[in-house]
Amino acid sequence: MIQLNWSTEAEAAMSGVPGFVRGMARKAVEDEALKHGINEITPELVRAVKDKYFTSIFGGKKEEKVEVDRVNKGDKKPHKIAIIRCETVSETCPGIACMLAWNKKKIHFAGYGPDDELIAMLTCGGCSGRRVSRMVEKLKKYGLDTVHLSSCMLLEGDYPKCPHLAEIKQSILAKGIEVVEGTHH
User: Fold this and answer.
1) Average pLDDT, consecutive stretches of 10 residues, N- to C-terminus, the chain (185 residues)
2) Whole-number Å distance between alpha carbons of 120 and 138
3) Domain-by-domain residue ranges, the chain?
4) What is the DSSP track for 59-72?
Protein backbone atom coordinates (compact mmCIF):
# COMPACT_ATOMS: atom_id res chain seq x y z
CA MET A 1 0.00 0.00 0.00
CA ILE A 2 1.32 3.41 -0.95
CA GLN A 3 1.80 5.80 1.98
CA LEU A 4 0.17 9.14 1.17
CA ASN A 5 1.71 12.26 2.69
CA TRP A 6 -0.36 15.42 2.99
CA SER A 7 1.63 18.64 2.80
CA THR A 8 0.75 21.40 5.26
CA GLU A 9 -0.44 23.51 2.32
CA ALA A 10 -2.70 20.68 1.09
CA GLU A 11 -4.23 20.34 4.55
CA ALA A 12 -4.85 24.10 4.54
CA ALA A 13 -6.49 23.84 1.09
CA MET A 14 -8.99 21.39 2.61
CA SER A 15 -10.01 23.90 5.28
CA GLY A 16 -12.59 25.43 2.94
CA VAL A 17 -14.41 22.12 2.63
CA PRO A 18 -17.49 21.94 4.90
CA GLY A 19 -17.12 19.39 7.69
CA PHE A 20 -20.06 17.26 6.58
CA VAL A 21 -18.34 16.40 3.27
CA ARG A 22 -14.69 16.71 4.30
CA GLY A 23 -14.22 12.94 4.66
CA MET A 24 -15.66 12.33 1.19
CA ALA A 25 -13.51 15.12 -0.28
CA ARG A 26 -10.37 13.79 1.42
CA LYS A 27 -11.07 10.30 0.08
CA ALA A 28 -11.59 11.70 -3.43
CA VAL A 29 -8.21 13.47 -3.27
CA GLU A 30 -6.48 10.32 -2.02
CA ASP A 31 -8.17 8.15 -4.64
CA GLU A 32 -7.04 10.53 -7.38
CA ALA A 33 -3.47 10.45 -6.03
CA LEU A 34 -3.44 6.65 -5.94
CA LYS A 35 -4.93 6.46 -9.43
CA HIS A 36 -2.01 8.52 -10.76
CA GLY A 37 0.74 7.03 -8.58
CA ILE A 38 1.19 10.23 -6.56
CA ASN A 39 2.27 9.87 -2.94
CA GLU A 40 2.58 13.57 -1.97
CA ILE A 41 -0.75 15.39 -1.67
CA THR A 42 -0.29 19.00 -2.76
CA PRO A 43 -2.67 21.98 -2.77
CA GLU A 44 -2.67 21.77 -6.58
CA LEU A 45 -4.02 18.21 -6.40
CA VAL A 46 -6.66 19.28 -3.87
CA ARG A 47 -7.77 22.13 -6.18
CA ALA A 48 -7.79 19.83 -9.21
CA VAL A 49 -10.06 17.34 -7.40
CA LYS A 50 -12.34 20.16 -6.23
CA ASP A 51 -12.61 21.40 -9.82
CA LYS A 52 -13.25 17.91 -11.15
CA TYR A 53 -15.72 16.56 -8.59
CA PHE A 54 -17.02 19.31 -6.33
CA THR A 55 -17.64 22.37 -8.51
CA SER A 56 -21.31 22.57 -7.63
CA ILE A 57 -20.50 22.97 -3.94
CA PHE A 58 -17.29 25.00 -3.95
CA GLY A 59 -17.36 26.76 -7.30
CA GLY A 60 -14.41 26.35 -9.60
CA LYS A 61 -13.27 26.79 -13.14
CA LYS A 62 -15.53 24.23 -14.77
CA GLU A 63 -19.19 25.01 -15.28
CA GLU A 64 -21.00 23.00 -17.88
CA LYS A 65 -24.11 24.32 -19.60
CA VAL A 66 -27.12 22.22 -20.39
CA GLU A 67 -27.22 21.62 -24.15
CA VAL A 68 -30.68 23.16 -24.54
CA ASP A 69 -31.55 26.64 -23.35
CA ARG A 70 -34.28 25.88 -20.82
CA VAL A 71 -34.93 29.43 -19.63
CA ASN A 72 -38.55 30.34 -20.23
CA LYS A 73 -39.19 33.10 -22.76
CA GLY A 74 -42.45 34.32 -21.28
CA ASP A 75 -44.93 32.26 -23.30
CA LYS A 76 -43.86 28.85 -22.02
CA LYS A 77 -45.00 27.41 -18.75
CA PRO A 78 -42.35 26.79 -16.09
CA HIS A 79 -40.55 23.46 -16.12
CA LYS A 80 -41.39 20.99 -13.35
CA ILE A 81 -38.37 18.91 -12.47
CA ALA A 82 -37.75 15.83 -10.34
CA ILE A 83 -34.44 14.32 -9.29
CA ILE A 84 -34.20 10.56 -8.98
CA ARG A 85 -31.38 9.27 -6.77
CA CYS A 86 -29.93 5.86 -6.08
CA GLU A 87 -31.66 4.18 -3.13
CA THR A 88 -28.42 2.61 -1.87
CA VAL A 89 -26.41 5.84 -2.08
CA SER A 90 -29.20 7.73 -0.30
CA GLU A 91 -28.30 5.80 2.85
CA THR A 92 -25.02 7.75 3.06
CA CYS A 93 -25.67 10.86 0.95
CA PRO A 94 -28.18 13.52 2.04
CA GLY A 95 -28.40 14.88 -1.53
CA ILE A 96 -26.85 18.25 -0.67
CA ALA A 97 -24.71 18.47 -3.83
CA CYS A 98 -27.78 17.87 -6.02
CA MET A 99 -29.74 20.52 -4.14
CA LEU A 100 -26.91 23.06 -4.24
CA ALA A 101 -26.50 22.54 -7.98
CA TRP A 102 -30.25 23.11 -8.41
CA ASN A 103 -30.37 26.14 -6.10
CA LYS A 104 -27.42 27.77 -7.85
CA LYS A 105 -28.59 26.61 -11.30
CA LYS A 106 -25.17 25.09 -12.03
CA ILE A 107 -23.82 22.17 -14.01
CA HIS A 108 -26.80 20.18 -15.39
CA PHE A 109 -29.29 22.78 -14.08
CA ALA A 110 -27.54 25.77 -15.67
CA GLY A 111 -30.23 26.45 -18.29
CA TYR A 112 -33.24 26.61 -16.00
CA GLY A 113 -34.93 29.88 -15.12
CA PRO A 114 -36.26 31.39 -11.90
CA ASP A 115 -39.82 30.20 -12.56
CA ASP A 116 -38.82 26.55 -13.03
CA GLU A 117 -39.56 24.33 -10.04
CA LEU A 118 -37.98 21.29 -8.45
CA ILE A 119 -41.14 19.44 -7.42
CA ALA A 120 -39.62 16.19 -6.12
CA MET A 121 -36.42 14.48 -5.09
CA LEU A 122 -36.88 10.77 -4.64
CA THR A 123 -35.02 7.50 -4.80
CA CYS A 124 -35.35 4.82 -7.42
CA GLY A 125 -36.75 2.42 -4.83
CA GLY A 126 -33.75 0.11 -5.00
CA CYS A 127 -32.51 -2.19 -7.70
CA SER A 128 -34.01 -2.49 -10.28
CA GLY A 129 -35.53 0.99 -10.09
CA ARG A 130 -38.81 -0.61 -9.07
CA ARG A 131 -40.66 2.55 -8.07
CA VAL A 132 -39.52 4.94 -10.80
CA SER A 133 -42.39 4.29 -13.21
CA ARG A 134 -45.06 4.65 -10.50
CA MET A 135 -43.55 7.83 -9.07
CA VAL A 136 -43.15 9.46 -12.49
CA GLU A 137 -46.78 8.64 -13.26
CA LYS A 138 -47.90 10.27 -10.00
CA LEU A 139 -45.72 13.34 -10.60
CA LYS A 140 -47.17 13.86 -14.08
CA LYS A 141 -50.35 14.96 -12.30
CA TYR A 142 -48.30 17.86 -10.89
CA GLY A 143 -46.91 18.89 -14.27
CA LEU A 144 -43.64 16.94 -14.26
CA ASP A 145 -41.88 17.33 -17.60
CA THR A 146 -38.21 16.60 -16.84
CA VAL A 147 -36.41 14.04 -14.67
CA HIS A 148 -32.74 14.42 -13.78
CA LEU A 149 -30.99 11.18 -12.95
CA SER A 150 -28.67 12.02 -10.08
CA SER A 151 -24.94 11.95 -10.65
CA CYS A 152 -24.63 9.10 -8.12
CA MET A 153 -26.40 6.83 -10.60
CA LEU A 154 -23.93 7.68 -13.38
CA LEU A 155 -20.50 7.82 -11.77
CA GLU A 156 -18.10 5.02 -11.19
CA GLY A 157 -15.71 5.19 -8.25
CA ASP A 158 -16.97 5.44 -4.68
CA TYR A 159 -20.33 4.11 -5.82
CA PRO A 160 -20.95 1.56 -8.53
CA LYS A 161 -22.65 2.88 -11.68
CA CYS A 162 -26.32 1.91 -11.71
CA PRO A 163 -26.66 -1.42 -13.51
CA HIS A 164 -30.31 -0.62 -14.33
CA LEU A 165 -29.75 2.86 -15.77
CA ALA A 166 -30.93 2.02 -19.30
CA GLU A 167 -34.16 0.42 -18.05
CA ILE A 168 -34.87 3.28 -15.64
CA LYS A 169 -34.28 5.86 -18.35
CA GLN A 170 -36.52 3.96 -20.80
CA SER A 171 -39.34 3.68 -18.24
CA ILE A 172 -39.29 7.48 -17.79
CA LEU A 173 -39.16 8.21 -21.52
CA ALA A 174 -42.09 5.82 -22.04
CA LYS A 175 -44.16 8.15 -19.84
CA GLY A 176 -43.40 11.07 -22.18
CA ILE A 177 -41.01 12.73 -19.73
CA GLU A 178 -37.63 14.15 -20.74
CA VAL A 179 -34.58 12.59 -19.07
CA VAL A 180 -31.38 14.48 -18.28
CA GLU A 181 -28.43 12.43 -17.07
CA GLY A 182 -26.70 14.21 -14.22
CA THR A 183 -27.13 16.77 -11.49
CA HIS A 184 -23.90 18.05 -9.94
CA HIS A 185 -21.15 16.21 -11.89
Assistant:
1) 84 74 80 84 83 54 43 70 93 90 90 92 93 96 95 76 90 93 87
2) 11
3) 5-53, 80-181
4) --S--PPPSS----
d(CA 102, CA 117): 10
Q: Which of the listed CATH numbers 1.25.40, 3.40.50, 3.30.300, 1.10.1740 matches domain 80-181?
A: 3.40.50
Residue 73 backbone phi and psi in degrees, to 5:
-105, 25
Predicted local distance difference test score (pLDDT) of residue 178: 94
CA distance 173 to 167: 10
Name the nearest CA neighbour of 163 among 138, 128, 121, 111. 128
Q: What is the pLDDT of residues 93-115, one digit of tens each?
A: 899 999 999 999 998 898 888 99
Q: In the CATH hierarchy, which top-level class contains the domain 5-53?
A: mainly alpha
